[in-house]
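Form 7-S
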Amino acid sequence: MRTHYWVSILVSSALALSACQRPAKVAAPEPLPPDYPDNIALRQRGLVKDNPSDSGVASQATQKPPTPAANADTPEARGEQLYNQHGCSSCHANKQVAPLLADLFGQSARKLANGATVKADEAYIRESIVNPAAKVAAGYPPIMPSYSHLPKEEIDALVAYIKSLRSAGGK
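Output:
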């Protein structure tokens, strides 16, 4: 009698489980490439898709048209556009991650990680963009990527923008 009981339990359990349908396999969404500086150059050349629903490589015809700010009239405006485009604010807006850039230009004794001090002039800012590991700010790890691949005009625009940055209570 007990055997019939256990057999009937097993059979009814098997039938109940077989009636359940497995969910259809759902493909994971294609991950979006991060907006890190390394991918910006690829996007500009059309080698990375901007829209995950597109298939294949982005073509020149499907790329977004340039924004009006792309034709900035002043070096500072072009520098601000590049600053945002390359994601600089993702680190430099948080003083726990990277030094704030407001009021940087003109500091006479910028302290470095090696204990030395340097004047924060145009040459220092330019070198920090092109070769950031050369003079690392005190209290920060050397995590900034090099932007030596940028054309001189873009680096000049970034320098002009950083020179123009002032804090709310600053100069």
